[in-house]
Every structure is written in structure tokens, then in C-alpha cells.
């Protein structure tokens, strides 16, 4: 039985609505890249439309300025859009300057944050020090991007979970999953949340499936496709 919460990561309104109504996810995350890919033209109108249909589950919207003063003002604004909103703050700006002072300031204002684009344990620790157990917050570590570099993210995620449990009580989110196995890895290493794409959500029903049966179904797929294609070999 999985303890971990599943959040849908995306910005397609129909998919978000289906995930909400299907009850398969407990929350949602977005980011500017996903919104652009989904063809969103007006950031605030999109966010408000999403919040109309999803008023009662955590959902993150990210600031997108690059100077900390404008990020601060965007965060205050985004925070007013709904009770269930978490403001996503990238751990640095594009110059690699730390957003920790900004995070500290926003926590002081009582704003629920999702600190994002984290890839190192040092970043987790610096964030952990300024978040408060009194204010709900999420720490998003891009485990899939860590794995993309050839590093196993599991030891880092395990250490991050222990770190956050002791100090800030922030929820640890395994971001950028690459395969269904990551859901089980994230659960086992103490993550509170994992974001999942639609493909991953669909495959969760395969849990515990008999491998002999899966092998037979795979062969059936080859057979059916060869027939449908009308392949012939003279023999
Ligand atoms: O929310 C984070 C996620 O969308 C990033 O995924 O696959 O670009 O690393 P990816």
C-alpha cells in the first residue's frame, strides 16, 4: 500500500479536470514550461480558470520574474488567487543567485511555498533552514533530472526526507519522474509526494501484475500487429 501522494504535473485543462474528477491525484503542479507547451497565452486567466475547477486541492503556480523584488511581488499576487495555492519559487534565478533570502521573506509573510528546481542536498538544507513548520510548504527535488546525469537520486532523496522531517516539516516532492518504478522508489525513501504524468498514472494499475502473463500479452501484441500489418515471409 503506497503512502505517497500523487500530484498531476501539467497544464492541460482537460487532463487536469479528468485527473481531478477521477480522484486519482491529491494535488497539482504546473510550471511556465508546461504552460507554454500547453498553449497557455494568459498566465493569470489560465490559473484562475484552473482554480475554478480545482478549488480544494493543493496546486502550485510558479513566479517567472528573474529579479527577486519582482518575484516577491508576483508571489504575493499569486498567493491571493486561492486558498489552495502554493507559490512556486525556483531555488535560484537564471544567474544562479540563491532565492533563499526571498524564500525566508515569503515564509515571514506566511505564504505557502513550493520551492522548485532543486537538484542538490545543499539546496535542500538551505531551504530547510528558512522554511517554517508553521507554514505548509513543499520542497521539489528534480530526481529525474538528477538521474539524467547518471546519478542515482535515491540516496539524495532519502537524506532529504530525513533532513526535512527533523527541521521544517516541509513535504518532500519527487519531481520529474521518468518511469513508474519511481513512484515505488519515492514512497520507499520517504518522499511525501511524487508528480506523475498521465502516462505514469495510467501504468500504476500494473502494480503486482504477473510477469508470465505480461510476457504472454507482449507476445500477443507482436502477433496482432504482424497480422494487422499483413506481414508475409515465403517459407
Ligand atoms: O515539474 C517539474 C517537471 O515538469 C520537470 O520535468 O521532465 O522536464 O525534468 P522534466
TrEMBL record:
PANTHER family hit by this protein: FRUCTOSE-6-PHOSPHATE ALDOLASE 1-RELATED, TRANSALDOLASE
Organism this protein belongs to: Drouetiella hepatica Uher 2000/2452
Tell me one Pfam family matched here. TAL_FSA
Question: Mind telling me which NCBIfam families this protein's record contains?
Answer: transald_staph
Q: What is this protein called?
A: Transaldolase
Give the EC class as a word: transferase
Q: What's a Gene Ontology MF term here?
A: transaldolase activity
UniProtKB keywords: Schiff base, Transferase
List GO BP terms, alphabetically.
carbohydrate metabolic process
Q: Look up the EC number in the record and give it.
A: 2.2.1.2
Q: Which InterPro entries match?
A: Aldolase_TIM, TAL/FSA, Transald_staph-type
